[in-house]
Amino acid sequence: MSRIKILNIEVDNVNMKETLQSIDRMIRKGKPSYVVTPNINHVVALESDSLFREIYDKADLILTDGKPLIWYSRLVKRPIKAKISGSDLFPLLCKMAAKRGYKMYFLGAAEGVAAKAAENLEKKYPGLNVCGTYSPKFGFENDLEESQKVNEQIKEAAPDILIVGLGAPKQEKFIYRNLEELNVPVSLGLGASLDFEAGNISRAPRWMANAGLEWLYRIIQDPKRLFKRYFFDGLKFIPIMIKYRKVK
Asked: Which fold has domain 3-198?
C-alpha cells in the first residue's frame, strides 16, 4: 500500500476493497489504530490547526473523501485510485463486521440517532453486533464527568470498531486523545454517517455524488448550518491549491 503526497497531506492510494482489507488487518493486529478521511474542509483546517496536523501525521490509514481531491490528484499527475467516502465505507464495515463477528460501538449524533442507526443496520446485516451506542451532550469533551462516562462505557463494551460521529475535527481529536485509554483496534470519525443510517438525513443521489456535488445537496438540506462552512472553505481551498501546486 503506497502513500501519495497531495496538497498538505499524504493519502493511502487504495480502492474500497483494499480499504476494507487494511481495516480487517488492523483489527486482527489488535493495536489501537485510527482512520482519517480528508476532504476540502480537512485540508483547510490542517493549515492552521496544529493538533489536527499531528493527528494526520500519525494516522494509520488516510482515505480520500472528496471528489475535488481526486480531481486535483489527476491534475498534478499523482492520481488517487478512488474516492472512499465515510458514508459509503460505513455500511460495508458493518457488513464485514457481521461476517467476521467484530463488535462495533457508535458514538455521536443527536440523542437517539446512534441507537436508531444500530437498529437499522442490525436488521440490514444479520449477525451484526453493535455492542453499544451513546449520544453525548454538546460540549461533553469539556466536562470531565461526562467524558469519563463516555470512556468507561466504550471500554466496558470493548468494541473492535469504534465509529465516532461528532463532526470534524472534534471526532478526530476525541479519537486521538483517547486512543490508548480506549484501546479499540480501529476507530473512525465518520461525520454524518450515523444520521444517514438512522434515516435522519438523506444522502445525495448517486449522480450528484459522482459529480462531486454532495456538498450542494447537504447545503440544500441544512443551509443555515452548512452554507458558510462549504462556501468559505471552498474559497480558502483555492490559495492552498496554488501553494502546493508544485510540491512533489
From this structure: Rossmann fold (3.40.50)
